[in-house]
């Protein structure tokens, strides 16, 4: 599919070519119960960029990512990946969930978690060959976790756990990486290691989208921002969209002006 049929507010159908966008949302509304938590969101992720999804607690950032991944079915609206359906492109998308959402007591070794990133390549028979073990070690090395391959995941620090899940995403060799708060609760060394890998991916032409909380690092880390507070509050390059006005509109009085003052 190369064009997407969309209904405008007045009910007219328009056609839009979204093949150049690794991820696009149009009119996405998500509800967990009777009340929608994300309202009619349009989002267009540009290929080869790093986008920060920012907004206050409870703004719907994680919900938006889950809807983008098909983990939650939107009440209304459309999600396209490279202009096509999500199901046909799933292998090209890697997801690093919020650390808090994972059961770390599950008895599994670090190398097995990373091997999960290869499950499509392993096929139905799951025959693990030397090249697969080598790939796992290569990905662990890339995030500085090569010495922990045999460790139980429950015996890792928060930052180490986050690196292992990034290694799993790397093993998948995806084109689009969606990360939910990759820097939450990690030390400075881990944060630096993660951002280095993400920038390398971007420089290889991959697309990175991360839910991000620390407004003080947005300009250093990201090319683009998407602002949300239940609704889309802004989207664009960091220079154009990460402005004091947009932050005030998105966060209201909940943010210190000191942080907002950092934005242009
Ligand atoms: N499984 C769920 N069932 C019901 N309500 C939920 C569920 N998950 C999230 N919500 C609600 O939906 C709203 C959006 O939550 P979401 O986790 O997407 O926000 P967020 O912007 O990622 O927040 P945070 O920055 O605190 O992580 C919140 O009001 C939250 O309480």
Automatic annotation (TrEMBL):
Keywords: ATP-binding, Hydrolase, Ion transport, Nucleotide-binding, Transport, Zinc, Zinc transport. Its EC number is 3.6.3.-. One of its GO terms (biological process) is zinc ion transport. InterPro entries: AAA+_ATPase, ABC_transporter-like_ATP-bd, ABC_transporter-like_CS, AztA-like, Metal_Ion_Import_ABC, P-loop_NTPase. GO terms for molecular function: ATP binding; ATP hydrolysis activity. The keyword Chaperone does not apply. Residues 23-255 form the ABC transporter domain. PROSITE patterns: ABC_TRANSPORTER_1, ABC_TRANSPORTER_2. NCBIfam families: AztA (NF040873). Belongs to the ABC transporter superfamily. This is High-affinity zinc uptake system ATP-binding protein ZnuC. It comes from Pelagimonas varians.
């Amino acid at each position: 599919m190369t064009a997407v049929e969309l209904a405008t507010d007045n009910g007219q159908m328009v056609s839009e070519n979204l093949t150049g966008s690794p991820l696009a949302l149009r009119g996405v509304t998500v509800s967990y119960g009777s009340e929608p938590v994300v309202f009619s969101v349009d989002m267009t992720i540009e290929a080869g960029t790093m986008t920060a999804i920012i907004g206050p607690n409870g703004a719907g950032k994680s919900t938006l990512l889950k809807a983008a991944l098909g983990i939650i079915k939107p009440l209304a609206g459309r999600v396209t990946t490279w202009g096509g359906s999500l199901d046909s492109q799933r292998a090209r998308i890697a997801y690093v969930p919020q650390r808090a959402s994972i059961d770390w007591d599950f008895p599994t070794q670090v190398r097995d978690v990373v091997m999960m990133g290869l499950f499509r390549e392993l096929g139905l028979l799951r025959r693990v060959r030397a090249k697969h073990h080598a790939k796992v070690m290569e990905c662990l090395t890339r995030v500085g976790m090569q010495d922990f391959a045999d460790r139980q995941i429950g015996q890792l620090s928060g930052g180490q756990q986050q690196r292992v899940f990034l290694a799993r995403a790397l093993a998948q060799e995806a084109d689009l990486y969606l990360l939910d708060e990759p820097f939450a609760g990690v030390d400075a060394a881990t944060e630096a290691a993660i951002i280095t890998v993400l920038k390398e991916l971007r420089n290889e032409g991959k697309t990175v989208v991360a839910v991000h909380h620390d407004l003080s690092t947005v300009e250093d880390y990201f090319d683009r921002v998407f602002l949300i507070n239940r609704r889309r509050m802004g989207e664009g390059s960091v220079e154009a969209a990460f402005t004091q006005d947009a932050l005030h509109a998105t966060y209201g009085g909940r943010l210190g002006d000191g942080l907002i003052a950092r934005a242009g």
